[in-house]
Structure formats: C-alpha cells, structure tokens
Amino acid sequence: MSEKKKESVLAGFKAFLMRGNVVDLAVAVVIGAAFTSIVNSVVKGIISPVVGAVGTKSLEGYKSCLKAPCAIGPDGQPTGVEILWGSVLNATLTFVITAAVVYFLMVLPMSKYLAKQEARRKAKEGVQEVVEITELELLKEIRDALVAQRGGGTAPTSPRNGF
Questions:
Q1: Cα–Cα distance measured from residue 140 to residue 158, given in angstroms and rounded to the nearest whole number
Q2: pLDDT digits (tens, 9 = 90+) for 91-127
Q3: Which helix (H) or strand (E) element contains residue 4?
Q4: Sign of torsion, CA 96 38 33 52?
Q5: Is the C-alpha dihedral spanning 5, 6, 7, 8 positive or negative?
Q6: Contact 48, 90 (CB under 8 A)
Q7: Per residue in 138-147, pLDDT tens?
Q8: Which residue of 57, 76, 86, 107 could cross-link 62, Cys pair, CB 3.0 to 4.6 Å?
Q9: Would you tell me how many other CB atoms lie within 10 Å of the CB of residue 59?
Q10: CA 33, CA 39: separation in Å to the nearest integer?
Q11: HEC string of the chain?
C-alpha cells in the first residue's frame, strides 16, 4: 500500500470520526451507559425491596420450576429447570423507568423547545410577509401621490410591473 493511499484512508477515517453525528452518537452511548447504571441501582436498591416488602422476597427471588425437582444438588449445582420471571420483571421495570425518564426529561422538553422555535420562525416569516405587503402598498400610495402632484389625476399602470 502506498504512503499516499494510506494517508488518504486515514484522513477519510478521521473525517468520518469527526463528523458531528458520530461524535454525538458516541457521547449519547456514554451518557446512556452511565444513566442505565443509575436506573439499575434505583430498581435494585429501592423498587425491588419495596416489591419484596409487599411480596415475600425481592424481584430477583421470584421464579418458577418448569422441570422438578428445582433445588441445589449435593455438588452445589442447581437441578431441574427454573424460569427466573422475577429477573425478567426486574429488567422490564428498569427498561420502562429508563424510557420514561428519557422521554419526560429529554425528548418531551426538546420537542416542546423545537416546536416553540418553529412557531417563532413561522411568526417571523409571517411578519416579514405583512411588512412586505405594507411596503408595496406604501410605494403605490407614494406613486399615486406623485402622479396626483403632477396633475395627472389617476395613476397609470404599466403592463410590465403593475405600477
């Protein structure tokens, strides 16, 4: 591989990494991982014990035996087939809480902000259109006044520009 081709490949890779969406995605993944850790701690440290206080044990302890006998054998290995539905419920709660927090604290405020920005932009465009129409009418009035001063009486209109 020639030195020039190697440099162009590296330059292309650097340009790819420095594009805004790739950097934003990397930041989002890091923040998401940190946020998931917080939510997992909340579910494990607060919600699971509350469920355990209402029930008989924490969410991780709920399971069903699909193939008996479900126990710990003399060698320390589990026997039978257990379905750990408490772990699935725990993961589902973690997902729902994470999704709710992301939606209510990030997505919803951002969409409201963007909607306000769009409304402001549209309002600004509407004001500019009104101003342009008003300026056009003002120019017509000035034209009519100048024609009247010259003694023409009515304002002639040109087929080319409407004046």
A1: 12
A2: 888 788 878 877 888 788 888 998 999 888 888 877 6
A3: helix 3-18
A4: negative
A5: positive
A6: yes
A7: 888 899 999 9
A8: 86
A9: 24
A10: 10
A11: CCHHHHHHHHHHHHHHHHCHHHHHHHHHHHHHHHHHHHHHHHHHHHHHHHHHHHCCCCHHHCCEEEEEEEEECCCCCEEEEEECHHHHHHHHHHHHHHHHHHHHHHHHHHHHHHHHHHHHHHHHHHHHHHHHHHHHHHHHHHHHHHHHHHCCCCCCCCCCCCC
Single-letter amino acid code for the residue at 62: Y
Alpha-carbon distance of 41 to 33, in angstroms, equals 13
Instruction: Tell me the sheet residues that pair with 67.
Output: 81
Phi-psi region of 106 (alpha: psi -120 to 50; beta: other; left: phi over 0): alpha
The pair of three-digit structure tokens given for residue 37, joined into one six-digit string: 């850790």
Q: To which residue do tokens 């026997």 refer?
A: 79
Per the CB < 8 A criterion, the answer to whether 89 and 62 are in contact is: yes
Pick from 156, 142, 161, 147: which is nearest to 134 by CA? 142
Distance CA 116, CA 127 (A): 16
Q: What is the pTM of this model?
A: 0.49
